[in-house]
Amino acid sequence: MRTLVLYLLVTIIIVGSSTGVKAQDKLIPVRKEYAATLLKLADALLERQLKDSRDVDCGAIACARCKVLHTRAAEAVYPFTIAYTITKKEQYLQAAKSTAAWLFRQQQPDGSWKETPEEWTGTTTDQLLMLLLSYEKLAGGMTNEEKEKWRTAMTKAADYLHKVMTPEFASINYVATTTATLAKAGQMLNNGQYLQKARALAHRTISKMDADGFLNGEGGRSHGNKMGVDLGYNMEMSLWGLGLYARLTNDTVVHRAVAHALKNHLWFIYPDGSLDASWGIRSNKWTVYGSGTSDGSQVLFTLFADEDQRYAAASFRNLQFLRSNILPDGLIGYGPQHATLFKDPPCIYPTFTKAKNIAMAYALETKDSRPSALLPTKQTGWFRYFHTLDVVEVRTRNFMATITGYTYKDLAGGSKSKYMYRPAGGAMSYCWVEGHGMLQASSATEYSRPEPMSFPEAPGVITITPRIEYRDSSGYFTNLFEYDCRLQAGQRPDKNFWVSASGELKDKNWFGGGVGVGYTMDYLFADKYLEKTVHLTWHDAWPVVSIIEPFVQKEGCTIQQVDDKTVMIRTGKRAFRFRLMNGKAKLSTGENAEHYWAPYPSVKAFPLRLEIQPPANSFQGSVTYRIELID
User: Fold this and answer.
1) Is 614 among the domain residues?
2) How buried is 476 (Cβ within 10 angstroms: 0-12 exposed, 13-18 middle, 19+ buried)?
3) Could you tell me if residue 51 is inside a domain?
4) Helices 30-47 & 90-106 angle (0-180, nearest 10)
5) Cβ-contact 545, 469 below 8 angstroms
6) Residue 443 is part of a domain; what is its CATH number?
7) What is the pTM for the complete model shown?
8) Residue 79 lies in a domain
9) Which of 219, 296, 381, 508 has its CA 20 to 30 A from that of 127?
10) What are phi and psi of 299, to 5 degrees?
11) Average pLDDT, stretch 2-24?
12) How far, in Å, CA of 188 to CA of 157, rounded?
């Protein structure tokens, strides 16, 4: 018996040790990873800080691209503060104090800060929150004079936000952030009115969530309030602001609303950690790792990490993807191919916004390590139809894609609205392949610079979004301007997935050409291929219609037309065959290829064109083509 007991004890020890090793192998050292990335970004910002004490702008952070001192860049005060708490290096402490001192000198008489070089003051909420969080860490080492300067500036800014912040005043991300800002200000500055305003704003904000938890309020106005959903700003701004507010105030109503929302937002973190904001109304800032001027998702996932193991994994995967977009000079670019497409350095916005987010994640994280749970998008063999958005995601063994029929319209802004050039009409706004990464992506249908400091010059660029189009004497018409498309999705008996989108080819004013051309796009997703069938109906006008399929040109990618029906696409790891299966169409490649690139996301593509003549003895026609994985 003693021998048996000894044997069992030894077995338990061995098995337990073995299991412990395996569990350890699957742990993510989250705080260590946050710290490493934060210090890299903080050093890039520190290098660009003006340090001459005789300079009136000492403490500001210079932006070589924009040639201005962005007031919002002073949000780096918190990344510097956390860098100091991690390393205890005086250079970060001095940088934080100098940044704050410069920001105090920029404060307007009403307590606000302008988002230089613009006149917008809603970003006061971002600047104030970073000051509040920094003061909490640094006040113990401040002189009474320093404390007075900080508290005076913070009180003036909080008073301003208390007075002006509403959904009528600002896009919803500013309102959501302000719930956390005023909650923190109320606690630190001992002002109950701030807390009351924070609660009122928080509850009004969550009332704008749809049934799936997607938050409206980023686009054009309808009767004074903004409408429209953008996943990038939801995940990287609004939801973490509400989540932090809920934690500070123990508001369980708001906490439950954000927790519900996050469960659906999680599905837009792709298997490689990229964040799919391709379809939202602010997709003109989509960088693939997130959005260009929003903060980041790490703080959001950290706030809810104890509730679902997948959140820490999603945070880390996205952090890894973000790191792949850090340029040699330490700044974050506008997308995966920024260094190839731009010679000049990027604006510092992505760097300081992502740095502040990672700093918050580091400070809020309560554990050194988290389990490396499986992301939902790593699992295969599923589709999800987000009915409140008319957006479908499909995942097979090798392919994952987003099909968007999101129907939001800025009725007041119309074709002048910056929110109405996102992909729509059943377009495939993102396509990813296992072992390859991004195969196809999307960009603004017509590129413009609504915020000149955020959007680089890019004359002549052509959208990289897959699409149907034609031009005639009436103008340019495409499914990308169809905001009333009908979308369906399902699974076939053979386990493959289908998505169908129907509508009319329209111009940017949402009118059909003459009496228009109708279309239906039928997608079929299998493990080894993606197939599209495009059905066209000519009403009275008879234009030549083209289907454009741009493919992302990664380094080493070759695209070669083999015959009149076949194109081979080869990369270092995987190979694809584009093949016309049925229907009459002229296949060509590379037309205007030099213009197929996007500032956001910074990606270059190579176009394939199928040209379809109107039928001689009918009013309908169709083509079927397939993108096959052949390796």
Assistant:
1) yes
2) middle
3) no
4) 60
5) yes
6) 2.70.98.70
7) 0.94
8) no
9) 219
10) -65, -40
11) 36
12) 13
Alpha-carbon Rg of the chain, whole angstroms? 26
Give the separation between CA 118 and CA 293, rounded to whole angstroms. 14
In sequence order, what are the residues at sequence separation of 6 or more whose Cβ sits closer than 8 angstroms to the Cβ of residue 599?
A: 334, 341, 447, 455, 456, 458, 461
Number of domains in the chain: 1
CA-to-CA distance for 53 and 500, rounded, in angstroms? Answer: 63
Residue type for position 206: I
Report DSSP letters for 458-473, one per residue: -TT----S-EEEEEET
SS (H, E, C) 304-346: CCCCCHHHHHHHHHHHHHHHCCECCCCCECCCCCHHHHCCCCC
Residues 6 or more apart whose Cβ sits within 8 Å of residue 562: 568
* 389 assigned to some structural domain: yes
Q: Which residues contact 585 (CB under 8 A, 6 or more apart)?
A: 547, 610, 611, 612, 623
Q: Which two structure tokens, joined as six digits, stand for 582?
A: 């049925």
Torsion sign (Cα): 547, 498, 431, 415: positive
The CA dihedral of 358, 362, 365, 366, to the nearest 10 degrees, is: 180
CA–CA dist 456, 461 (Å, integer) = 12
d(CA 231, CA 18): 41
pLDDT digits (tens, 9 = 90+) for 142-166: 999 999 999 999 999 999 999 999 9
Distance between the two ends of the chain, CA-based, in angstroms? Answer: 58
The closest of 48, 82, 90 to 65, measured between CA atoms, is: 48
Tens digits of per-residue pLDDT, 371-413? 999 999 999 999 999 999 999 999 999 999 999 999 999 999 9
